[in-house]
Amino acid sequence: MVVQAGSIQKASFYVFLGMLCISINDLLVKQFSKNYPLHEIIFIRSLIAILLILLLVKSEGGLKILKTQQPIQHALRAVAIFLCNMIFFAAIATLPLATATALFFVAPIFITLLSIPLLGERVGVRRLLAVITGFLGVFIMMKPNTWAMSVIPPFIYFLPVIAAVLYALMQIMTRKLSKSSKPAALAFYIQLTFVIFSLIFGFIFGDGKLAAVSSNTSLQFILKGWSDPEISDLPYFVALGFLAAGVSYFMSKAYSTAAAASVAPFEYVLLPLSIFWGWTFFGDIPDLYIFTGIIFIVGSGLYVLIREKKKEIPSSFCPNKS
Predict the structure, then answer these.
(1) In a domain, 204, yes or no
(2) DSSP structure string for 122-176
(3) Number of domains forming the structure of the chain
(4) 235, 251 in Cβ contact below 8 A?
(5) Is residue 175 part of a domain?
């Protein structure tokens, strides 16, 4: 597989825009978790987003681009990112935003690993060692030695990691499906799935009767009943819709532009953004464990990027040979 020179730069630009949208989206969702159930937030957000994405569909060729010969693969991809969102947002209802985001950054590591069997992208021994270093960073951030004294249940720390696996699978499928589908179509399928599944969740949990099952903040966020949005919150829901559309489109565009293992490290820009928002709005300051883990993860990701850049030549970039 040969990628034209400059494709990595284009992909990195799309990733930055996508990560900026994600960081603000996570901030708003965490803020809304106090007053609204997760399925309601996702439903309203995605309903707005899907209308915006239809405008992108029109610009990329019209409704005909939504036709596909791979409906099952698109459905699996959309379900993976829906579950990823549900699990991650449940985590940030309890964990500090920076901590949850840092733990989630095992995702690029999984993308690098999964690109080997699923995409046939070669990953050399040195990059595999970098992946192991990244996993060590995640282990440090989970702080297992403090679980016995922590008020946060240990399983909450695993939620961002589970979400990361689902996210990695989704982006791997994005890379494969991008050969036959436009980025706007890929974004449309995701938001349509969000609307459908959030409605199903609403019918099951919307009355809030199951909310008394647990006092855990994350479970409450999922199980609490539907609440009519406050007028003052409507602009923020609209903003969430724009952000969701942006995330879906920009990330689909990024993973359609360059190899998955090459694009993934650029997602680390989300870490400083999440730390900034968490500190600014919630007063969350990462502790030594988090900063140490971030160093391990970002270091491993940057090493992967450096290995890719060394193989770039003026006329082409060959991510398969590393």
Answers:
(1) yes
(2) ---HHHHHHHHHHHHHHHHHH-GGGGGG-SS-HHHHHHHHHHHHHHHHHHHHHHH
(3) 1
(4) no
(5) yes
How many CB atoms are located within 10 Å of the residue 144 CB? 11
For strand 316-317 and strand 3-4, is the pairing parallel, antiparallel, or unpaired? antiparallel
Residue keyed to tokens 């439903």: 43
Cβ-count burial 8-37 (b if 16+ within 10 Å, e if not) = beebbebbbbbbbbbbbbbbbbbebbeebb
| Positions in the chain short of pLDDT 70 | 1-6, 145-150, 260-261, 301, 304-322
- CA-based nearest residue to 71, from 207, 208, 219, 173: 173
pTM here? 0.78
- Domain span holding position 96: 3-317
CB 74 within 8 A of CB 68: yes
Other CB atoms within a 10 A radius of the CB of residue 225 amount to 15
Q: What tens digit of pLDDT does each residue of 130-151 get?
A: 888 888 888 888 777 666 666 7
- Within-domain flag for 189: yes
Q: pLDDT of 192-238, one tens digit each?
A: 999 999 999 889 888 888 777 777 888 888 888 888 899 999 999 99
The tokens 């709005």 sit on which residue? Answer: 281
What values do phi and psi take at 3, rounded to 5? -115, 130
| Contact indicator for 284, 97 with CB cutoff of 8 Å | yes
Residue 322 resides in a domain: no
